Amino acid sequence: MIKADIIHPQLLGTLALCGHKTQILIADGNYSFVTNSSKEATIVYLNLAPGMIASSVILAKVLKHINVEHASMMAWPQGFTNTIATEYQQLLPEGCPIDYLNREAFYHAAKSQKTLLVIASGEMRRFANLLLTVAPVSLAD
Q1: Sign of CA dihedral 96, 91, 24, 2
Q2: CA pair distance 71, 102, nearest whole angstrom
Q3: Which one, 14, 56, 95, 128, has least CB within 10 Å?
Q4: What is the reported pTM?
């Protein structure tokens, strides 16, 4: 039995395959992760029921296993209050740049062959999709 923050075998195994510049998509419950991600990506289903498991919880656990050099979110309409964006900003490493891509640009980025892992969450908040670019391990790690 593994004693760690993540014990899901497929998730751990795929995280171990992620190298520098690999992309990881944390997809909300509204995202069409089968048609709008790389065909080569491993999809890990953590979406047991609506609202389980929150994307911010997934991000917090994933960040204990990888470094992130860049993040992208799908841009949301003007006037929409995106509460999860603030949560992501608080969790991501200080100074980590975040791009806000229009829907089609986000889908294009997620479909890249660089996307190795798609985590399907039960997150029901809209515009909660987050695409992470893995950074190298530093000597301080």
Answers
A1: positive
A2: 14
A3: 95
A4: 0.94
